[in-house]
Amino acid sequence: PRGEARRWLAEVEAGDLAGRRPAELSGGQAQRVAVARALAADPALLLLDEPLAALDIHSAPMLRRLLKRVLAGRQAIIVTHDVLDALMLADRVAILEGGRIVEIGPTRQVLERPRSSFAAGLAGLNFVPGTLTAAGVRTSQGLEVYGHLEDAGQVRAAGRPGVAVFPPSAVSVFVTDAHGSPRNSFAVAITDLEPHGDQIRVRAGGMAADITPAASADLGLVPGMTVHFVVKSAEVSVYEA
C-alpha cells in the first residue's frame, strides 16, 4: 500500500524523495530507498547485500540503528565487509574466503577469536599462527610470541597448532629495540603507512600498529624503514587453532 511505502521512506529519512524518479537519486539516496522498499514488503526472509554501502557519515549510523531495531525477531541474511555491521546486526556470522565458508559461529566469538588470517583481517586484528608453547606461540620461523592463554587447559595443549591475536592499537612503534615490561618486540620493515580514522596504520612484517599522526612524524616513519613493534604480553590472546 502507498501508505506503508511512505512510512518506510520516512523511516530511512527519504520521505522527501517519494516523487523523484530513480535516475534523479544519488547513490546514497537510492540505497536508502532500496532498503525502504525491502522492508515495506515485510518478507519472511530479508536479504540485504551491503545495505550501508554508498551512505554518508550521517546516513550510515541512522540506517544501522533502524536495521538493528526492525531486524529484531526477523530472519535476515546480510552481506557486509564492515565488522561494525556484523557486530550490531547479526547474532551469527559466516566468513567466506574464495567462495567457501572458512569460519562460522556466534558473531562476537568469531570476530574476537578468529581462527584464520582472513577472518582476523576482517576483524581488524593482528594474527600470528604457530605452535602453542607454555607461554604463547612459536611460529614456523622460530619467532616467540608471548601472551595470555585463553583456555584453562591450554598449557597441556603445548605442541598443537595455535594462534596469537592482538589489536593494532596495542602495538607501540620504536625506532630502536625497547626495554622494560613489554615481552614482545619484533624487528620489522614498514611496507605501508595509511590513514585509519584519526590514526596512522603502520603495516610491517604482516602485522599492523595504530599510532597518532604526530607520533608518526616524530619517528620519521617511511616505507622500507626498519622499526620495532612492541606489544605487552597481557594484550596478546593465545588459543588453540
Brief overview, please?
26% of the residues lie in helices and 34% in strands. It has 7 helices and 15 strands.
Molecular structure report:
It is a single chain. A hairpin with a 2-residue loop joins strand 11 and strand 12. Helix 1 (2-11) packs across helix 2 (27-40). This protein has helices spanning 2-11, 27-40, 59-70, 83-89, 107-112, 117-123, 213-219, and strands at residues 45-49, 75-79, 92-97, 100-106, 126-132, 136-138, 144-146, 148-149, 161-166, 172-174, 184-196, 199-204, 207-211, 226-231, 237-240. The longest helix has 14 residues, at 27-40. It folds into 2 domains: 2-90, 3-Layer(aba) Sandwich (Rossmann fold), CATH 3.40.50.300; 125-240, RNA polymerase II/Efflux pump adaptor protein, barrel-sandwich hybrid domain (OB fold (Dihydrolipoamide Acetyltransferase, E2P), Beta Barrel). It is of the alpha+beta class and 241 residues long. The radius of gyration is 22 Å and the shape is elongated. It starts with a helix and ends with a strand. Helix content is 26%, strand content 34%. It has a 6-stranded mixed beta sheet. The chain has a 5-stranded antiparallel beta sheet with strand order 10-14-11-12-13. The chain has a two-stranded parallel sheet with strand order 1-2.
Task: Produce the secondary structure layout.
Layout (H helix, E strand, L loop, with lengths): L1 H10 L15 H14 L4 E5 L9 H12 L4 E5 L3 H7 L2 E6 L2 E7 H6 L4 H7 L2 E7 L3 E3 L5 E3 L1 E2 L11 E6 L5 E3 L9 E13 L2 E6 L2 E5 L1 H7 L6 E6 L5 E4 L1
Parallel strand pairs: 1-2, 8-15
Antiparallel strand pairs: 3-4, 5-6, 5-9, 6-7, 9-15, 10-14, 11-12, 11-14, 12-13
